[in-house]
Write a structure and sequence with these properties.
The complex is a heterodimer of chains A (about 300) and B (about 575). With about 300 residues, chain A is α/β, with parallel strands linked by helices. Chain A has 8 helices and 13 strands. Chain A has a single domain, classed as Rossmann fold, CATH 3.40.50. A 9-stranded mixed beta sheet of chain A has the order 9-8-7-10-6-1-4-5-13, with helices on both faces. The longest helix of chain A has 17 residues. Chain B is α+β, with helices and mostly antiparallel strands and about 575 residues long. In chain B, the strands form 3 sheets. In chain B, strands 3, 4, 5, 6, 7, 8 and 9 form a 7-stranded mixed beta sheet that branches. Chain B has a two-stranded antiparallel ribbon with strand order 1-2. In chain B, helix 6 runs antiparallel to helix 11, helix 12 packs across helix 15 and helix 17 packs antiparallel against helix 18. Chain B starts with 8 loop residues before the first helix and ends with a helix. Classes of the chains: A alpha/beta (about 300), B alpha+beta (about 575). The interface between A and B is medium-sized, with 13 and 18 residues.
Chain lengths: ~300, ~575
């Protein structure tokens, strides 16, 4: 038997490599100036889904909600081995917080039919909320296992997984379908496969095909779409209307989270204290560290 | 997150200026392959895009996966456990990774699971892998073995072995060397005979076999009893089995990730590849030429790694109140290294292109013949490419492997005492580089192989054509230098010819081959300098110092520096 897995992925600004030029004066990040990358833990989620398929068979479907250029990470999903990918994109989704995002995602997942797993990264490196996975599970009405670093056992419709925390781990069992969020340590993502890379480098979403048609009267959107579908290179796009969503729950209007204020905090090591490398000096250092609760 | 493709501007420069149009067109049967395989390119631009994307994957694996494991691999080395060879852990992981990415059959045709890439692209991959871990190249770079089976094996052998290589399921070994047959492969003794059922069997000992524990072995053996030279040797393929005993693994100076085995064949069943008696004179020569190019790319990768270590160390290390990078003597050494590195890369990829052109023109001749069409013109071009590739391959190996050692030597020197310690990777690079000018034919053998082409001035037409061109500004000054080097070369060549002494010619050959390499590389660098401003610096230092070296080479010949060879016994007490 096989398992049908849906993987939630997100394109994020590469916040790990922030330099001076990409910070705006008010302390927020100028997203346009940052390279957009595949959220690292989402890639792990895809890897875990692919491992489940390698061992037990089945299907892996990747979903992303984002602007048209988010197709790039869907192509990367195809390079790694995803069977199908979907872009969920609509101008009306702009400004979505985690509540609105999980609403759209859960509706899109329902649209795709039965499934055994939803995998997602623990959190995205831009917002770091770790809320979208859990909220999606809530809306789908399925159990969730967060912070997974290992699938211990998979037997029929029951999964046993290990959750890792700072000071230990917990092994839990759940009925399927279930949603699992995974952490970086869970796996090392596989490389792109050369033949898939060469095949799917030309995969295009509807918006990308529209771009190709723009200014070229010889091309028609429908013909192109047909051609790309034939060749298995069409990335289907789900819009608000196609998903029959409640507009008031999408984008800005569906997002109760409002940014109140952004404060630019510059960390500067203003004061430092010197301890001599003697016995007494070390004693004083340790006492000080305990006072400051750096040592427990 | 270093990517060894995208972080290397000079490699990108070479990639961006590749001209493989004709090669790819023949390789892709006029892009008909795309009808059959969704990943085959539909046109030349698409093919180049494929190569770029795949090289990015190689660069990522090399920089982020292989390189961090290289030190561990070097320390751990392989083990012989119950007669089986076990790779160092890092090597095992590297191979799994490369297999996952489908990179183990880069040049093989698609019908056998390969990617059908040109050699030039494969060499770029080898360069990056070697920069990360030179010893991994000895496994990744063994794809020539599959290539040999593809070229000379029968259809059944191809079907039996090639997909196993391409899928990464099996690795191979070239089983040639014996205790008494190293550079002189004509002396190979390992016995091949047919048993009463007509089955070929192998019996004897082989030594210094890279990846001797591999699954599919190409073995050079004496099939014609009573013969003593290369014409009595045939090439066989066999699969590892109980009859093959790994007697020991060598304890080597470098490339510790690559196991080097002594093997004993005890009536091992084998299949003949191609025709009897052609083993050495045709198939192994061909196999070795492919491997020589691979070792050149390996040397280049090591040199790149060593140069970067030296440059970064020099920038970080302060002495006399400033980074040693700013001390002119050190800066000068670094520039020398950089110029050598880039001129070597130029030579490698020019040679690789000729090798590709030779292979593809040969294929085209066969296609035209089969279709009953006129092939005279293509045949002529094939022969020319064949001659040029036969000259450039050993010349490239000689130049690149010798200078990789020099670059490593200087890079270690820049590290000072720290470079002598195992705390820094530079000593590993220096040890790894040292084999490149020995295996697949020593430098001395490369000179022997290149001499014929040099003496016949194979590249005469190219040089004359380049001499006719006029260049802008400083480049004309450099072009005049090259003209002078050509005078010096022709003079020296005439001197050697007039002398009509075989021994003298053998010893003078090194100078002649070096002179010839200055000319070829010099003109290539001039072409690049016309495309890119920065390359003028590279061309300038290369050509100016080439003229000085050319004068030295010529003096050595003219002054008959070698005359004292006659008194060797008196000198060598």
């Amino acid at each position: 038997m096989g398992y049908r897995s849906i993987v939630l992925v997100k394109q994020v600004p590469d916040t790990a490599n922030i330099s001076g030029e990409v910070m705006k004066p008010d302390g927020t990040v100028n997203r346009a100036a940052l390279p957009a990358i595949f959220n690292p833990e989402d890639r792990i989620a895809l890897e875990i889904a692919l491992q489940v398929k390698d061992r037990h068979g089945g299907e892996v479907i990747a979903l992303t909600m984002g602007p048209p250029k988010a197709s790039e990470i869907l192509r990367e999903c195809l390079y790694m081995g995803a069977d199908r990918v979907y872009l969920i994109s609509d101008r009306k989704f702009a400004g979505a917080d985690t509540l609105a995002t999980s609403y759209v995602l859960s509706e899109a997942i329902k649209k795709l039919g039965d499934f055994d797993f939803v995998f997602a990264g623990r959190q995205a490196i831009d917002g770091d909320t770790a809320q979208v996975g859990p909220q999606t599970a809530e809306k789908l009405g399925i159990p969730q296992i967060t912070y997974v670093d290992q699938i211990v056992e998979l037997n029929g419709k029951v999964v046993t997984a290990r959750r890792r925390f700072d000071n230990g781990y917990e092994i839990v069992r759940s009925q399927l379908p279930a949603l699992l969020t995974v952490i970086q340590e869970a796996a090392e993502p596989r490389p792109f496969k050369a033949t898939r890379l060469m095949t799917y480098k030309s995969a295009k979403s509807l918006m990308e095909l529209e771009k190709m048609v723009e200014g070229n009267p010889l091309l028609s959107r429908e013909d192109l779409r047909h051609e790309y579908e034939e060749r298995g290179l069409f990335i289907p796009t789900l819009t608000m209307d196609e998903l029959k969503l409640d507009e008031s729950r999408c984008g800005h209007s569906g997002s109760p989270t409002k940014v109140f204020k952004v404060e630019s905090v510059v960390l500067a090591g203003g004061e430092h204290e010197k301890f001599e490398p003697t016995r007494e000096g070390l004693d004083r250092l340790i006492t000080k560290l305990m006072e400051d609760r750096i040592f427990g | 997150m270093p990517n060894f493709f995208t972080d290397n501007p000079d490699l990108l420069f070479h990639f961006n200026h590749l001209n493989l149009k004709e090669i790819v067109e023949i390789a892709e049967n006029g892009y008909e392959e795309a009808q059959k395989y969704p990943y085959a390119p539909v046109n030349y631009e698409d093919a180049m895009e494929n190569y770029r994307k795949v090289l990015e994957v190689v660069g990522d694996i090399a920089g982020n996966f292989v390189a961090p494991r290289a030190e561990g691999v070097d320390r751990e080395g392989p083990r012989l456990v119950n007669g089986r060879v076990e790779y160092a852990r890092g090597i095992k992981e590297d191979l799994e990774r490369l297999t996952q990415a489908e990179l183990m059959g880069m040049t093989l045709p698609r019908e056998y699971g390969g990617l059908n890439f040109p050699h030039t692209i494969y060499m770029m991959a080898i360069e990056m892998i070697s920069r990360a871990d030179a010893s991994l190249m000895n496994l990744f770079g063994l794809q020539d073995i599959a290539e040999t089976i593809y070229k000379y094996g029968d259809e059944e052998q191809k079907k039996q072995f090639l997909p196993k290589f391409a899928s990464g399921e099996c690795t191979g070994a070239m089983v040639l060397t014996e205790p008494d047959a190293g550079s002189d492969l004509q002396a190979v003794k390992l016995h091949a005979y047919q048993d009463e059922k007509g089955q070929w069997r192998l019996r004897g000992v082989k030594r210094f076999i890279t990846n001797g524990g591999g699954d599919i072995l190409l073995v050079l053996a004496r099939s014609e009893p009573g013969t003593k030279d290369g014409r009595g040797l045939s090439l066989f393929v066999c699969q590892r089995d109980e009859s093959i005993k790994i007697r020991r693994l060598e304890d080597k100076l470098g490339i510790h990730g690559s196991p080097t085995a002594e093997m004993q064949f005890n009536d091992t069943p084998a299949q003949l590849i191609g025709k009897r008696k052609f083993g050495l004179i045709k198939y192994v020569m061909d196999l070795m030429n492919g491997a020589r190019l691979g070792v050149s790319a390996q040397a280049l990768g090591i040199a790149q790694a060593a140069y970067e270590e030296a440059r970064d160390y020099a920038r970080a290390r302060e002495q006399f109140g400033k980074p040693i990078y700013n001390i002119p003597v050190v800066t000068n050494m670094l520039i020398d290294m950089r110029v050598t590195l880039e001129s070597n890369r130029t030579l490698l990829y020019a040679t690789a292109r000729w090798v590709d052109l030779r292979d593809k023109l040969e294929k085209k001749v066969q296609q035209l013949k089969a279709a009953g069409r006129d092939f005279a013109e293509t045949q002529k071009r094939f022969k020319e490419a064949n001659r040029i590739a036969a000259l450039l391959t050993p010349m490239t190996k000689y130049v690149l492997t010798e200078s990789a050692n020099k670059i490593c030597y200087d890079a270690l020197q820049i590290h000072g005492g720290a470079g002598y310690m195992r705390d820094f990777p530079i000593e590993r690079h220096a040890r790894d580089a040292r084999i490149t000018n020995i295996y697949e034919g020593t430098s001395q053998m490369q000179i022997v192989a290149a001499t014929g082409g040099v003496i016949n001035d194979i590249l005469k037409d190219y040089f004359e054509q380049q001499e006719q061109k006029s260049y802008k500004g400083h480049l004309q000054f450099l072009a005049d230098h090259l003209k002078e080097i050509r005078h010096i070369f022709l003079d020296s060549l005439q001197f050697v010819k007039d002398k009509d002494d075989e021994n003298f010619q053998d010893v003078a050959a090194r100078d002649l081959v070096e002179l010839y390499s200055y000319l070829y590389v010099g003109y290539l660098l001039l072409e690049q300098a016309e495309l890119d401003q920065r390359k003028i610096f590279i061309a300038n230092r290369y050509i100016v110092s080439a003229l000085a070296k050319a004068r030295k080479n010529a003096e050595e010949i003219r002054n008959e520096q070698f005359a004292d060879l006659l008194h060797a016994d008196e000198i060598l007490i």
